[in-house]
Write a structure and sequence with these properties.
14 strands, two-stranded parallel ribbon, single chain
Length: about 325
């Protein structure tokens, strides 16, 4: 066990406080921030703009770490999946999903999950704990290490260009740490990802959706998956607390919902449950007056899962009804099989 204080995940103000405790000038925080988040450096000895005696001193009490890699898998399509081991030996998963000229890193916010959504593998695991802000931002930094994407590219050529908070856990149940991590990620003197390149996916924690819009303004994705409350109660049990109409009202109020930055509704298709033409027409009605796009996701089978994936003609018909509405509808097929 390493007793030194982890600097990754501290806000700028907290970083300055740590320096004051070391009898150092607060302006050193700016230099450290640059080395940690722009250069991606973990070794104080290599932070050459800092005085040598300061580097020696801070290394005794503080560290700049990463989650350790328990397993790493790369698929033939370029998808890369890490199982990161945290300091308390809990594990979380992070996935890099490449597109042609960019790619998204899918980041976890909790070890396990409280939500028990019936079609989701993480939902079968109990919630162990929330991740810290450092563990959240650390996943993205470790992914960057893996692709040697330091210092932060300035010319728009990033492979790791987007973050999606769609990994293990419900991000809005760990709002404080998620917000702190994303604020660090968006800081223009470090990792410098714009809020337009960050998407937070929620199962519908209505009170926090508004707060997220006001304080972070990142893109919003909603795990909808059903157009009737009785079915959504079963698939996404949090619906019993905040039913569909309340969730959609929160979406209508979300400050970034404009044509340029539309809310994404995620809709996992389960054969015989939510994939009929009637479901598609109802979905069109529900999202009236919301600037949105629909992400149709044919179910990805999990061991012991009670559902089946719809046949291709069923998927095509569903998407066609949405497209004729007209809504923007895309089908997200599995990557990394």
């Amino acid at each position: 066990f390493d007793p030194r204080i982890e600097l990754v995940g501290l806000s700028r103000a907290e970083l300055a406080e740590e320096l004051v405790r070391l009898d150092e000038k607060p302006f050193r925080a700016k230099q450290l921030w640059h080395w940690i988040y722009h250069q991606g450096e973990t070794d104080f000895a290599k932070m050459t703009t800092l005085a040598k005696d300061f580097r020696t001193k801070i290394a005794e009490t503080h560290k700049v770490g990463r989650p350790s890699v328990a397993t790493l898998q790369t698929s033939t399509d370029g998808t890369r999946k890490w199982l990161f081991r945290l300091d308390d030996f809990e594990d979380v998963e992070t996935v890099y999903i490449p597109e042609n000229d960019r790619g998204a890193v899918c980041v976890s916010s909790q070890v396990g999950c409280t939500l028990t959504c019936s079609f989701c593998h993480t939902g079968t695991q109990p919630l162990v704990r929330n991740l810290t802000s450092g563990e959240i931002v650390g996943q993205f930094m470790a992914a960057r290490d893996s692709y040697n994407e330091w210092p932060t590219p300035q010319d728009g050529t990033r492979m790791l260009s987007n973050i999606v908070m769609m990994g293990m856990g419900e991000p809005l149940f760990n709002y404080e740490n998620v917000a702190k991590a994303l604020t660090i990620v968006m800081d223009h003197e470090g990792i410098s990802l714009s809020k337009r390149r960050i998407t937070l996916s929620t199962s519908g924690i209505v009170p926090e959706i508004e707060r997220c819009g006001e304080e972070l303004g990142v893109n919003l994705a909603i795990s909808l998956h059903a157009v009737r409350d009785d079915l959504r109660d079963e698939l996404v049990p949090i619906n019993k607390k905040w039913p569909i109409h309340e969730l959609l009202e929160a979406c209508r109020r979300y400050p970034t919902s404009s044509n340029a930055r539309r809310i994404t509704f995620e809709y996992v298709m389960l054969h015989g449950l939510n994939d009929t033409p009637a479901d598609a027409y109802r979905l069109v009605d529900l999202v009236q007056n919301i600037a949105c796009k629909i992400n149709v996701i044919p179910w990805n089978p999990i061991e012991g899962g009670a559902y089946t994936r719809p046949p291709q003609p069923v998927i095509d018909q569903f998407v066609e009804i949405l497209a004729n509405a007209p809504l923007t509808a895309t089908v997200r097929y599995s990557k990394g099989d």
